[in-house]
Amino acid sequence: MTRWKSLFVAGAVAVATFGTAVAQELIVEKKTFSLPSYTTVGGQTIKDVKVGWEAYGTLAADKSNAVLINHFFSGNSHAAGKYEADDKVPGYWDAIIGPGKAIDTNKYYVISSDTLVNLNTGLAPTVTTGPASVNPDTGKPWGTSFPVVSIADFVRVEKALIESLGIKKLRMVGGASMGALQTYEWAASHPEMVDRIMPVIGTAFADDFLVGWLDVWADPIRADANWNGGDYYGKEPPLKGLAAALKVVSHHASHWEITDEANAGAWADPAKDPAKSLDAKFKVQAALDAAGTIRAKIGDANHFLYLVKANQLYAPGGARSLDEAAAKIKAPALVIYQPKDLVFPGPAVEASIAALKKAGNPVESVVLQGKRGHLDGVLSMAQAADAIRAFLDR
């Protein structure tokens, strides 16, 4: 793996900007799971479906020790370890997954998979089927003729992967942000397969405020003329729109405390006063521009839009309200969140906790401390290690 790929595969530019998880010598192999065809929740067929996956630890003879981890919006399946010993950055939750860690791979077999329409189509370790994939019926990229998919579809493909391994029940399902949504979906739609859940920095239902924010994320792509209604394969891609969209995501996922601390009002160029020219920028502007531009080079704009739609449609088990969603979930839950989170605000997560308790569901919670907001659910998980270990081993 190239140095660039190892640096990115941790999941987000923020990891490289603000810190990394603790490295260890856990070497993992990326594998590919295939389905000849898959019928979406909406009733449409996708042929030749492929998603990447990896695992850490050893599956017990009775297959009772499996743990499933779901990734966040801009991430992929690389949750822990390294692909090669000299990789600079390990998987995004390496601080809590591995030998002797909170999710102990000496005890548990930890599985993580790429989602359908994964953003990172230009990253070799990511394997996914989506708009950029070739439609076997036409021999051309799907583009926006690709069926709309939902969080439930992500989970159904994961379920097929899990069943292909002969696993009938998961010791725990967990994940951060979009991964938390998948976690709740697993508990609501396949309760017989889930022993307990660990949703991190996510809510049990997509409210209208989240739907609106996701639309704000998507707007820069739609405003880029090169997007061309999604028909850009073989043409100039909408890199400016995708870079701007990723810039919005990066800023939304951070918090003003770490942003102010990291930039301190500095100018991007000490010789160019932002007060003297519209083109002169502050350091924070230049940093966000650079992050978005780098990320856009290995992403796909249509995949970004399909991920947005999947998150907007999120309703566990087809629920129509938070209370209905909570009523569908029976597995004990360890909810981990950051009160300063601007993507899934603390009060929204607390409303999910209250709804789960109201429905009679056993719930524990951990409040993460830090200055990074949403990003603390990726970068500060070591704080929750003891609670995770106890919850999983109980």
List the helices and strands and how they pair.
Blueprint: H1 3-8, H2 13-18, E1 31-39, E2 45-56, E3 66-70, E4 97-98, E5 103-104, E6 109-113, E7 134-135, E8 140-141, H3 151-164, E9 172-176, H4 178-189, E10 197-200, H5 208-223, H6 239-253, H7 256-263, H8 283-296, H9 301-312, H10 322-327, E11 333-337, H11 346-358, E12 363-367, H12 376-379, H13 385-393
Parallel strand pairs: 3-6, 3-9, 4-5, 9-10, 10-11, 11-12
Antiparallel strand pairs: 1-2, 2-6, 7-8
Sheet-strand content, in percent, reads 5-15%
Q: Tell me the helix content.
A: 25-40%
Please summarize the sheet with the most strands.
8 strands, mixed
Strand order of the largest sheet: 1-2-6-3-9-10-11-12
Number of helices: 13
- Going by CATH, what is the homologous superfamily? Alpha/Beta hydrolase fold, catalytic domain
CATH topology: Rossmann fold
Tell me about this structure.
- The strands form three sheets. Strands 1-2-6-3-9-10-11-12 form an eight-stranded mixed sheet, sandwiched between helices. The chain has a two-stranded parallel ribbon with strand order 4-5. A two-stranded antiparallel sheet has the order 7-8.
- α5 runs antiparallel to α9 (301-312).
- The chain is α/β, with parallel strands linked by helices and 394 residues long.
- It is built from 13 helices and twelve strands.
- β11 (333-337), α11 (346-358) and β12 (363-367) form a beta-alpha-beta unit.
- It is globular, with a radius of gyration of 20 Å.
- The protein starts with a helix and ends with a helix.
Name some characteristics of this structure:
two-stranded parallel ribbon, alpha/beta, 394 residues
